[in-house]
Write a structure and sequence with these properties.
This protein has 235 residues and is α/β, with parallel strands linked by helices. The chain is built from five helices and nine strands.
């Protein structure tokens, strides 16, 4: 499979060369190309319309926040460590499938840190509509030209984007029904910030003495039963 995708990688880069010299990698039997946001639509048009490629189906469109991904955990600033690995904090990723040729490709596009925006591919694959809305809702990535870019998973009054690495685990506002106002109201979160701590199982010694006493009693009873059996055999 890796050999097949290596050949596909060469074919893709050759066909996209007139538009952009894309970066292509094959890892774990998967082909990934990196495309600039300015040429994303032109690249996608070739991937879809070329008969040898024929990527006719969009499987997924998602966003990634690389702000702390791959950063060193022992020492140093996590943001600076991640910046050395990735050119930007945000990326939009498209997964395409060719039903005709039975091959797949992943397209990664790096976005601006302050204003992550990229062209929508809904005009090429209508199935990307809800995928792009989810990436907008969860990560705040804007898809220019999207026909209806609204939140899709969170509530109407939701503030922020939950999958960003700097989003608080408890959220920013909470919702409840106010009986006096007879409507739903939003208020600042009153819960304390949660911290993800690995589960540690600690031995509980509160019942150790009771267990030892029970085992000792069982041993005594076993000895008495053995003694009674021996006396009965001798008689």
């Amino acid at each position: 499979m890796s050999q097949y995708y290596s050949e596909l990688s060469e074919k893709v880069t050759a066909k996209l060369a007139p538009v952009e010299a894309v970066s292509a990698t094959v890892a774990h039997g998967e082909l990934t190309i990196e495309v600039s946001k300015e040429n994303l639509i032109a690249v996608c048009e070739i991937l879809k319309d070329d008969s040898e490629l024929a990527f006719d189906t969009v499987v997924d469109v998602c966003g990634v926040d690389y702000s702390s991904y791959g950063a060193a955990t022992n020492s140093g600033d996590s943001k600076s460590s991640a910046a050395k690995i990735f050119p930007s904090r945000y990326a939009s990723v498209c997964h395409l499938l060719s039903v005709t040729n039975n091959h797949r490709i992943r397209i990664r596009t790096w976005l601006d840190n302050d204003f992550p925006v990229v062209d929508s591919i809904v005009g090429l694959w209508r199935g990307a509509n809800w995928f792009e809305r989810e990436a907008f809702d969860m990560l705040g990535i804007l898809y220019s030209g999207h026909p209806d870019l609204r939140r899709i998973l969170t509530d109407y009054g939701f503030i922020g984007h939950p999958l960003r690495k700097d989003f608080p685990l408890v959220g920013q506002v909470e919702m409840r029904y106010d009986a006096n106002k007879q409507r739903v109201v939003y208020e600042p979160v009153t819960l304390e910030e949660r911290v993800n701590i690995p589960r540690v199982i600690v031995d509980d010694n509160r019942y150790a003495e009771r267990e030892l006493a029970a085992r000792a009693q069982e041993a005594v009873e076993a000895q008495e039963a053995s003694a009674q059996k021996e006396s009965g055999d001798q008689s």
